[in-house]
Amino acid sequence: MTTTGSAGSNHIVPDRVAVVGAGMVGLATAWFLQEAGVEVTVLDREGVAAGASWGNAGWLTPGLATPLPEPAVLKYGVRAVLSPASPVYVPPTASPRLLKFLTRFARNSTAGRWKTAMDALVPINRQALPAFDFLTKAGVEAQTYEAKSFLAAYRTVEERKVLLEEIEQIHAAGQGIEFEAISGDDARAIEPSLSDEIGAAIRLHGQRFINPGEYVQLLADSVIARGGQIISGVVVKDIVDEIRGVRLVTGDGETDPFDAVVMATGAWLGDLARQFGVKTVVQAGRGYSFSVPMAHVPAGPVYFPAQRIACTPLGDRLRVAGMMEFRKPEAKLDPRRIDAIVEAARPLLRDADLDARTFEWVGPRPCTPDGLPIIGATASPRVFAAGGHGMWGITLGPITGQLLAETITTGRAPAELRPFNPLR
């Protein structure tokens, strides 16, 4: 380890760091630690992008990265959230832990708390796309794609008011996003894949998207090419912080000590972090997706906000994603959720063969009750947390890794991370 800083404020820079979790957040943290000269080992229970990082929509939309708890959530009745077809689903046999999370989530779904959380996200959102650009310029071969069109489509002008009001609130918080409200006919002229059911839309400008599984794999390849080690199939059961370093206890025994450890285990973050003073509950908000062939694949993402369905062009197919299902992260895929997305999307898309689905997938987004991620040092100055990004782990993964690596190597947390203190 190397000591830096002035007398009385020395910080020991770790030489060897273990990152637990090989999703976007964990691998970005590992990559930026390498940029600072740190040797990294990444461990994952399954493998690269095996959790929420693989099958999501892949949107890079910091302009839309807002807190998940919002006043609109409270409009869902109990009957609605208990329905398997609901875009937001809670199982009727919810555990006490889930009920505790949902109670706190509801308390944070007010206009005042949404604004406070939005104010916290704006500074990190502004740096999200530059962090992707940094990776590209540094030689990571994964691509980001400019959205030639990015449409939020609605059946009626009345439905559209909800997002227009939210965009006003986003602007009021100091976060810029360029848009224009257009008719259904104009939307179809831009994107012929929309059906005649669409009567109004919002066109967003300056957005990007990626193929998330491909991107994360290429980021992993870069970490390995730079001398890092990625070990798959390892379940970390415990983290032991002692005088000679931090050891990981796995199903195969114990590792040699590391100088520091980063917990980036997504929806499982609380399992390891609780002993280090992290009290914020991290709950799996599971999302579903599948891919379908289309006569005309859209030129960019298509969003159906009323149905909470996100569509992304990936090569010659369209990925269709949706649902917020609050269940255990390891629960099996529930085909009823896939069916619900299919039936909601069928009347809105033209010439999409929704019955020729492939790559049916479910992944556990790590959600927090206040809608803010958990990033930074825990009660141990050698154990760090990075997770709880909700739906924005892809968008905010690289900037999270960049700012957390700075924290670990300098001993100073950047101002952008202060609202995300793991000990809050």
* Average of per-residue pLDDT values: 94
The top-level CATH class is: Alpha Beta
N-to-C CA distance:
29 Å
Major sheet: 9 strands, mixed
Count of structural domains = 1
Topology, number of strands: 23
Helical region count?
11
Residues in β-strands, percent:
25-35%
Q: Secondary structure elements and their pairing?
A:
Blueprint lengths: L1 E3 L6 E3 L2 E5 L3 H12 L3 E6 L14 E2 L17 H4 L6 E2 L6 H12 L3 H16 L1 H10 L7 E2 L4 E4 L2 H16 L6 E5 H7 L9 E5 L3 E2 L2 H14 L3 E4 L3 E7 L2 E6 L2 E2 L5 E4 L5 H5 L9 E11 L8 E3 L4 E6 L2 E10 L8 H11 L12 E10 L6 E4 L5 E5 L5 H18 L14
Parallel strand pairs: 3-4, 3-16, 4-12, 6-20, 8-18, 16-23
Antiparallel strand pairs: 1-2, 5-11, 7-11, 8-10, 9-10, 13-14, 14-15, 17-20, 17-21, 18-19, 19-20, 22-23
Helix pairs in contact: 1-8, 1-11, 5-11
Please, could you describe this protein's structure?
There is one protein chain. It is built from eleven helices and 23 strands. With 424 residues, the chain is an alpha/beta fold. It has a single domain (2-420), classed as FAD/NAD(P)-binding domain (3-Layer(bba) Sandwich). The strands form five sheets. Strands 6, 8, 9, 10, 17, 18, 19, 20 and 21 form a nine-stranded mixed sheet that branches. Strands 12-4-3-16-23-22 form a six-stranded mixed sheet. The mean pLDDT is 94.
